[in-house]
Amino acid sequence: MPPQCTYKPLNAANAEIRLLTILPGKLLAPVQCTLRIVSLNDPPNILVDAQRHDVTVSLEGVLRRLRRRRFATRSL
């Protein structure tokens, strides 16, 4: 029997949520994910032409995936 997942409590004052990230894999391979807690009060940011811009958590995640080495340079 697989181990049972135990959640850490969320901090409502920090507007925390659990973010589930699905890891890449082959179609028939087991689905693997990571789970982390993020605060909606601290939006991630990215650099565009050396200027910081706040973005959504989901956009930051997509951009991180796209920049992996095998996708070194991408134009979207």
How would you characterize this protein structure?
- The longest helix is centred in the last third of the chain and has 10 residues.
- The chain is of the alpha+beta class and 76 residues long.
- The chain has one domain.
- A two-stranded antiparallel sheet has the order 1-2.
- Helix content is 13%, strand content 29%.
- It has 1 helix and 4 strands.
Core attributes:
76 residues, two-stranded antiparallel ribbon, flat, 1 helix, alpha+beta
Looking at the structure, what is the overall shape?
flat
Largest β sheet strand count, sense and barrel closure = 2 strands, antiparallel
- The ordered string of helix (H) and strand (E) elements is EEEEH
Low-pLDDT segments, ≥5 res: none
Q: Which strand order spans the largest sheet, edge to edge or round the barrel?
A: 1-2
Q: Termini, distance in Å?
A: 44 Å
Q: Work out the helix count.
A: 1
Assign a percent range to the helix content.
Answer: 10-25%
Number of domains: 1
Q: Overall mean pLDDT score?
A: 83
Q: How would you briefly describe this protein structure?
A:
The protein has one helix at residues 57-66; strands at 16-22, 33-39, 45-48, 51-54. With 76 residues, the chain is α+β, with helices and mostly antiparallel strands. The model has no long low-confidence stretch (mean pLDDT 83).
Question: What is the topological layout?
Answer:
Elements: E1 16-22, E2 33-39, E3 45-48, E4 51-54, H1 57-66
